[in-house]
TrEMBL record:
PANTHER family reported in the protein's UniProt record: CYTIDYLATE KINASE/PANTOATE-BETA-ALANINE LIGASE, PANTOATE--BETA-ALANINE LIGASE
UniProt-recorded name of the protein: Pantothenate synthetase
Note: The reaction proceeds by a bi uni uni bi ping pong mechanism.
The organism of origin for this protein: Jeotgalibacillus alimentarius
Origin superkingdom: Bacteria
GO MF assignments: ATP binding; pantoate-beta-alanine ligase activity
Length: 282
């Protein structure tokens, strides 16, 4: 595995690979890797000639008072995990390398952002689509892989690629979970022992909430999820059901949906979701 730290070298290597006709798979991350990230790598390795991973904690997607400074980082460990998983090129630029000066141009996400996490994190997805626009330009991937745990991000990135005609295929990958159902997350390390025991209720309530939505509608489904989560020590940020990937209020014409929740614990804010479909009646 080769580690790349500069924009100049990343651009040159990507250009050379494209000239050779290599299929480039790309896994953008903020590091502190876990099984969820590695499942994206596995998917890329199986479908691509070259797998590129980036590790970059992007300051543009953190708002005031959020955890940019204390976001977990362990580059040495991440490099070992990435290499073992089959990453060919690991791009690890410093902030000053990607943003050498105050940006005169950024990218703004204008839809799929005003709900779920976007409702309480103004500007967050603008930071996401700005850094991804830069990374897609540098890496020149044919395919890029995103976990469905952050389904809103995957939907926003899908919109970015389609709106700006990036020549990259966005491939969603199923959420990787602990044995008790808790979604793998870099922020799980912030949970106390008691919170860690209670956190799987989030996923359990979302699964049953999806079933209730299909049979009884949106209000009973949301009430069920809120009741289940309220029984634990976390504070509900939101529970919602929307069409997917449009992230709009569901209509009778919609057939694919997301039921999602965010829960604040003392030191961590966890998100999870279930994406489900209603089959057409024959």
């Amino acid at each position: 595995m080769k580690v790349i730290t500069t924009v100049k070298e990343m651009k040159q290597i990507a250009s050379d690979l494209k000239k050779q006709g290599k299929i480039i798979g790309f896994v953008p991350t903020m590091g502190f890797l876990h099984e969820g990230h590695l499942s994206l790598v596995n998917k890329s390795v199986s479908e691509s000639d070259i797998t590129v991973m980036s590790i970059f904690v992007n300051p543009l997607q953190f708002g005031p008072g959020e955890d940019f400074e204390r976001y977990p980082r362990d580059m040495k460990r991440d490099q070992l995990l990435a290499e073992e998983a089959g990453v060919d090129l690991l791009f690890t630029p410093e902030v000053t390398e990607l943003y050498p000066v105050e940006p005169s141009v950024t990218v703004k996400a204008v839809s799929r952002t005003e709900v779920l996490c976007g409702a309480s994190r103004p500007g967050h997805f603008d930071g996401v689509v700005t850094v991804l626009s830069i990374l897609f330009h540098l890496v020149q991937p044919d395919k890029s892989y995103f976990g469905q745990k952050d389904a809103q991000q995957a939907a926003v990135v899908d919109g970015l690629v389609k709106s700006l005609h990036f020549p990259v295929e966005i491939i969603p990958v199923h959420t990787v979970r602990e044995e008790d159902g808790l979604a793998k997350s870099s922020r799980n390390v912030y949970l106390s022992d008691e919170e860690r025991q209670e956190a799987p209720v989030i996923y359990q309530s979302l699964k049953s909430g999806a079933d209730i939505y299909i049979s009884h509608g949106i209000e009973p489904a949301i009430e069920h999820v809120e009741k289940q989560i309220s029984a634990i020590n976390g504070e509900i940020d939101y529970v919602d059901i929307l069409s997917y990937p449009e992230l709009k209020v569901p209509t009778h014409e919609d057939r694919r949906f997301i039921i999602a929740a965010a829960v604040k614990f003392k030191q961590a804010r966890l998100i999870d979701n279930v994406i489900f479909s209603i089959k057409e009646e024959i």
